[in-house]
Amino acid sequence: MVQREEMEQVTLFSWATWQEQLYPDLKWMYHVPNGGKRNKATAARLKAAGVKAGVPDVVLPTPKGIYHGLYIEMKSGDNKPTAKQKEWLEYLKSAGYKTAVCYSYEEAIDVILAYLKQ
């Protein structure tokens, strides 16, 4: 599942690069590299440096309409958000951010375009 999710995200960012001329705010969209398998030493080092479980995968830090920015959690297949991911999404929403869970790059593109066109 992780590999498919990663490929969806790679495709999303490839699309974003191609669309920057039309939507300049896409230049600022980035990925939060929280996921993936790591050995215990690396995981401990990253945790000490501030990595937090559940932070959404994709961030577009551009305010639009009533929102301060956009956070997207990417999933694939039957994969569902974890309890920590849900907690982050709920917090971010309550803090004034648009949030979404997307199961494909197409769905993420639709969310991003709707957000940018507000």
Task: Give a description of the structure.
The chain has 118 residues and is α+β, with helices and mostly antiparallel strands. It has one domain: Trna Endonuclease, Chain: A, domain 1. Helix content is 43%, strand content 13%. The longest helix has 18 residues. The chain is globular, with a radius of gyration of 14 Å. The mean pLDDT is 93.
Keyword list:
4-stranded mixed β-sheet; single chain; Trna Endonuclease, Chain: A, domain 1; alpha+beta; 118 residues
CATH class: Alpha Beta
Point out poorly predicted stretches: none
CATH architecture title: 3-Layer(aba) Sandwich
Q: Cα distance, first to last residue?
A: 33 Å
Number of strands: 4
- Per the principal axes of the C-alpha atoms, what is the gross shape? globular
What's the story with the biggest beta sheet?
4 strands, mixed
How are the strands ordered across the major sheet?
1-2-3-4
Q: How many whole angstroms does the radius of gyration measure? A: 14 Å
Mean pLDDT: 93
Q: How many discrete structural domains?
A: 1
SSE arrangement, N to C:
HEHEEHEH
CATH topology tier name: Trna Endonuclease, Chain: A, domain 1
Task: Please work out how many helical segments DSSP would assign.
Answer: 4
Q: Which secondary-structure class do the elements indicate? A: alpha+beta
Beta-strand share of residues: 5-15%
Instruction: Assign a percent range to the helix content.
Output: 40-55%
